[in-house]
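This part of the workshop introduces the protein records we will be handling. A record pairs a protein's sequence with a compact description of its fold. As an example, a complete record with its sequence and its structure tokens follows.

_____
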Amino acid sequence: MQEKRFQKNDNGFICQVCGKEVSPLGYTSRNHCPYCLSSLHVDVMPGDRANPCRGVLKPIQALPDAKKGFIIVFKCEKCGAIVRNKCADDDDMKLIIKLTNPF
């Protein structure tokens, strides 16, 4: 039997970077804070929360995607891993736009 690659995990949380309360997304797994766009390096496969790193994933870039809107690129401050995730409907678009041209 093949293991599922995506596990829905749509829980609210308190952002460890900005301290704001983040509500569940409602239509897919909540991956990052919509206010500061930061995340935690907690998944091996989307939604599994099995990564032992637990470092802060800092947003470093946003890439436009014709099908998904924007893809946020994160860099883990602890282990240096690069991780990508789709932008959520309630993300701060001013921050997303800033990340599309970080220079």
